[in-house]
Amino acid sequence: MHMKTVLILLVLALATIFALVCVLLTRGRAPSTCQHQPPEQEDTDDGQSLVFADLTPEEMVQVVRYLQGNLGVQLVDASYAKPSDNCIASVDVQVPAKAEVLRFLDGGGARPSREALAVLYFGNQPDPNVTEYVVGPLPTPAYHRDVTVQKYGGKVPYHRRPVTGKEYMDINGLIQRELRKAPRFFAACCESDGTDLAILTTAPRGFKSGDRATWFVLFHNMAGTGYYLSPVGLEVLVEHGDLRVSHWWLRQVFYNGQYFASTEDLENAFVANLLEVVRVGKPQAEAVLGSMRPRRLPGSPGPLQYEPQGPRYSIRDNRVTFQGWSIAFGMNPNSGPRLFDIRYRGERIVYELSLQEALAMYGSNCPGGMSTRYLDGSFGIGRFAYELVRGLDCPYTATYVDRHYLVESETPKTNQNSLCIFEHDAALPLRRHFSDSQSLYYGGLRKNMLVVRAISTLINYDYIWDFMFHGSGAVEVRVHATGYISSSFLHGQGTDYGNRVGPHTLGTMHLHHIHYKVDLDVNGQLNSVETQDMEYELVKDPWSMQNTIERPYLRRERLEREDEAAFPLNTPMPRYLSFASPKRNRWGHPRSYRIQIASFAGEHLPASSPMERSISWGRYQLAVTQRKEEEPTSTSIYNQNDPWTPTVAFADFIDNETIVNEDLVAWISVGFLHVPHAEDVPNTVTVGNGVGFFLRPYNYFDEDPSVDSPDSVYFSSEQDARACRANPLACLPPAATCTPHLPPFHYGGFLNL
């Protein structure tokens, strides 16, 4: 072979080997880490949103010190205070009056004084009561004023105070002592001496104002799993209204359909063979009902949502901005998430959007279950919003925010990472069209939204609170229920009140009703309520007069008075209901936002019930009232323990005042009836258990505002859709060939209990 040919072949062989090595090296190389780019600067807030901000721990400490030194009474730390002591129950921010805030935000006025609202229990007084003080100015308090009478029309009676953790501990001690009086019964029924059983409270606590007697339900307590599914059949009624703990007593005992005056009577009936005992042994760990331990080894990881160039939202203090949206966020320790000054494209849409209350009302043939009407605000919807689990409760790469509270203590507590904020790709077009006639093109936009989320664990139930902000200018509010069902011991005609879900477990029917306050300011404070719905009219065909046609038409109406805008639960209401501005869009229509409710609530408590007024907000799926500073909330934490004389009765807000060109509030109820079934074990799933509402622009704009989104996609048949310059989706392969930076997994949610 010629030497020149050999050299050529050798060079080609070396080139081939080099190319193969390059390919192999490239394939084996890990992709680069995603490079974050700062989001577009949308925040011109300059700290103004701090007017709504939750108190800092330092501010809470200053308020406590001021109260300790300026009230002239001895204050005991609430974590170990007796009912006969004085103590600080809670400290939260006092949001300034709306007019004052708007003068500051919109009119260049002075920043309102920063103040706190302190709730105190005065048990060591001739007239024990609950008193609320406004304390300010922060950060260095110099004054306090009693606002109790101003807010509630009188002093708050002491028996209305929520039950503290110390009170529950003392009750638990009493019950344990009483259970020891029936050793043979417990050995037979429960393989226990009774002292290792879990005890669950019910509420309210009696039948009339002044009562403080609570049914407690007993369950087998298994480490590492929810005890709520393992009732043993025993319930006890404890009288704990006396300020002297030594005077509390066990008033009644219920077991398997029978009532007894005491645990001694229960023991005597058992010994005399007058009691039918159902043996409910302590379940084995591997067979315990409701265990959430995995039954299979982990599989391959599922899809992961991440931002190739970093978050496209921005958080500064208590404000988040995202593609035209601006929201101030916070957390009330009692009522939960609260948002303020929600703006889109610089215009305020909502002044306040806040959770008000969550009601869970049960049915059963056991006393604890049948008497339960939990008003979760009195337990602490915000206080019990614990740390979120990264990658499950929220996307792994979400931003997690700490929340601070001071409740039943003189020391602030922190729920780390208890609120998350993230951009969510719904894997659904927000809008799209494929044109297959005349011109050929495709246009669309992904449905991406900003989500603000918190999750509250209220005894057995977990509520997922979502506030979502869409590129179309719509706000979506949704709550999902999960966690454990509550249960009763199955006996008699128990299945009239639910389904059997275990050997001795009745999953008890109940309803969830959730209430929200929505202070809409649509193109200004002064709005009216307009409705539209359809009807049919029978008309002759203009082109064929001998024939007729049923033609749908719009029936428009402006509601004049509050009574007209109070729509009872589960009754038809206009399909379109909007808050309308006097100003009009380009096409001559009032600039408006539509309220669209998605709910399948159970039936409200009958009006004849002596406790109905305490939850009278539940009468209405929607009620519109004039906004008033003296009507800040639809309920009160004091309603739980005295629903017969409610401290706040929402029904009184509706007094037929005009709602034309006024500052208005929409009060919205959503909920669902839950009849537990086998598939609620171990946990209720979120699928099908979500309800909420939308606030949607309705002629507010001249066109869909999402047309300005930088994420819009459009290409025609005459373009090369593979070209990045013509189609941003074609830019994804090179832009997203990076690995997200995932922080190490950490969870500290058990540390602050």
Automatic annotation (TrEMBL):
Cofactor: binding comment: Contains 1 topaquinone per subunit.
Domain Copper amine oxidase N2-terminal: 74-143
Cofactor(s) it depends on: Cu cation
GO molecular function: copper ion binding; primary methylamine oxidase activity; quinone binding
EC number per UniProt: 1.4.3.-
Keywords: Copper, Metal-binding, Oxidoreductase, Signal, TPQ
Example of a GO biological process term: amine metabolic process
Catalytic residues in the record: D376, Y461
Signal peptide: 1-19
2',4',5'-topaquinone: residues bearing it: Y461
Keyword field contains Metal-binding: yes
Pfam families on file: Cu_amine_oxid (PF01179), Cu_amine_oxidN2 (PF02727), Cu_amine_oxidN3 (PF02728)
GO annotations of cellular component type: plasma membrane
Annotated Copper amine oxidase catalytic domain residues: 305-706
Domain of life of the organism encoding this protein: Eukaryota
Copper amine oxidase N3-terminal domain: residues covered: 161-257
Posttranslational mods: Topaquinone (TPQ) is generated by copper-dependent autoxidation of a specific tyrosyl residue.
InterPro entries: Cu_Am_ox_TPQ-bd (IPR049948), Cu_amine_oxidase (IPR000269), Cu_amine_oxidase_C (IPR015798), Cu_amine_oxidase_C_sf (IPR036460), Cu_amine_oxidase_N-reg (IPR016182), Cu_amine_oxidase_N2 (IPR015800), Cu_amine_oxidase_N3 (IPR015802)
Record-stated family: Belongs to the copper/topaquinone oxidase family.
PANTHER family hit by this protein: COPPER AMINE OXIDASE, RETINA-SPECIFIC COPPER AMINE OXIDASE
Protein name: Amine oxidase
